[in-house]
Design goal:
By secondary structure, the chain is of the alpha/beta class. It has helices spanning about 40-50, 70-80, 95-100, 110-125, 125-130, 140-150, 170-185, 195-205, 220-225, 230-235; strands at about 5-15, 15-25, 30-35, 55-60, 65, 80-85, 160, 190-195, 205-210, 215-220. The chain folds into 2 domains: about 1-80 and about 155-238, Rossmann fold (3-Layer(aba) Sandwich); about 85-155, no CATH class. Helices cover about 35% and strands about 25% of the residues. Helix 3 (about 95-100) packs parallel to helix 6.
Length: about 240
């Protein structure tokens, strides 16, 4: 059984059908990439998994539990967290305070919270240097580090990342992707939505291509990277 699985999921915005029978699997230990054009349904997929949107039909299971009827905050308790598109950090809270907000599922276990914070600072030394700085005064790259770090504070089994490279300079993009690889090597399964299809597929074990709310292609990431249709449509190659 896959760690995370969607079966024939249909999600609507009012009468508009945004996801049209999505089925996908994320195996434990993998990095799985979800690529597609703007408006294809990538963010909607993540929001449906995390409980921010409810599928009208279909089933989502995580670690053997059906999570589509469960409130979003309870899904975090099960071990699934998300770093959202646009970072959405708390600008008037310090770096430390932002990280603490991500640890609410740990309750008052101060030892666990402190251990998780040290882990985040080991991954992102720049955040440690700015731990008492307000989130809103950080650079875009630092805010992305903080968003990922906040999601890691709950010690997730699966980390979902929505466009982590958006708006970042190439050197920062490289650093963020290297950190995602490290996070995965430390035992966290990753579901990655990313506009940079080439970088996403190079990092991933398996990939899905979304087109207008449906899965158009899927397969081992290396196969998709060399697929003529994917190369033409998403990698900018003739």
């Amino acid at each position: 059984m896959a760690l995370l699985e969607l079966r024939d999921v249909n999600t609507y915005y009012g009468n508009i059908r945004a996801l049209k029978g999505i089925s996908l699997k994320v195996e434990a230990g993998q990095v799985v990439s979800l690529i597609g054009a703007n408006g294809a349904g990538k963010t909607t997929t993540l929001r449906t998994i995390s409980g921010l949107l409810r599928p009208r039909t279909g089933e989502i299971t995580f670690d053997g539990t059906a999570i589509h009827p469960i409130p979003a905050h309870e899904i975090v308790y099960l071990g699934l967290t998300q770093a959202p598109e646009g970072r959405q950090i708390f600008p008037t809270l310090t770096v430390n305070e932002n990280l603490n907000m991500g640890a609410y599922s740990l309750g008052r276990d101060r030892k666990a919270i402190e251990a998780n914070r040290r882990r985040v600072y080991d991954l992102f030394p720049r955040l440690a240097e700015r731990k008492n700085q307000l989130g809103g005064t950080l650079s875009g790259g630092e805010q992305q580090m903080l968003s990922i770090g906040r999601a890691l504070m709950a010690r997730p089994k699966v980390l979902m990342l929505d466009e982590p490279s958006l708006g970042l300079a190439p050197l920062l993009v490289k650093a963020i992707f290297e950190t995602i690889r490290t996070i995965n090597e430390q035992g966290v399964t990753v579901l990655l939505v990313e506009q940079n299809a080439r970088a996403a597929l190079r990092l991933a074990d398996y990939g899905y291509v979304l087109e207008t709310g449906s899965i158009a292609l899927e397969g081992p990431a290396d196969d998709l990277l060399h697929n003529e249709r994917v190369r033409h449509a998403y990698l900018g190659e003739a």
